[in-house]
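Q: I have 275 residues here and want to know how they pack in 3D. Can you give me a structure?
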Amino acid sequence: MHLFSQAMWTSTGALLFAGVSACGKAALENKPVVHLQTLSGQQVASLSTKKIFFGHQSVGNNIVQGIRDLESIDPRLKLNIVKSPDPEAVSGPALVELELGNNGRPESKLAAFAAVLDKGMGAQGGIAILKFCYVDIDTSTDIQKLFAIYRKQMSDLKKKYPALKIVHVTVPLTIADPWPKAWIKALVGKSARQALNAKRNEFNRLMRRNYAGREPFFDLEEIESTHADGSRLYLVQGNEKIYGLAPEFTVDGGHLNDLGRRVMATRLLAVVAEL
């Protein structure tokens, strides 16, 4: 069992430790063992017929590499992966991927996503995915405002391009700081990773509330914070669980390692295959 320091945050962001440990793994009912999932033959066949545009940044690059990793070990999976700012010009089924906007400026990613679709793929139809990065949300982010901008942009695109299927993706996480490091950061006026994850969790709750079960949805936060046994990793802040990135998925606390790449890629492809 993973043990973490229970923390309480003041309104100014200072960290006060209220206890020695809080359970960081909560049992999830009816959750699959994500590390062991593979794509079915039907899913692989479905993917071979689809045209997908995936706008992202660095964690997105990890996921794209994860798809390439899957292709190297699964001879059934053969996707035409193309990096291009013009997905409308790529003929036939393909996964067209591109780094969009600037990290730390989520509005720039939304604008770039719409601009790419406006070139022609929006009208053509297909599947479009935009993934924010964990650095797009910090402790100063107005979550309600950002989500309102996101929701309006996606609503406008849906109305403009009814043949296009948009997959909504929750924001990825980072690992939590161990309590001594979090305490030192608080002393020097820096935000601990768990405070940043709290803001990402807040945005992701809005994503889940508005899109899960209603529109195509990929819950990256849930998968990143879920261990192989189906339990989730979190810290306790007051009465709130702050979910973080499971350490077995990361190489540096935020970006994905070999296992993380394959797990996230498999789960994303599974979502897309069902559309």
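Q: Anything worth noting?
A: Residues 106-124 form the longest helix (19 residues). The radius of gyration is 19 Å.
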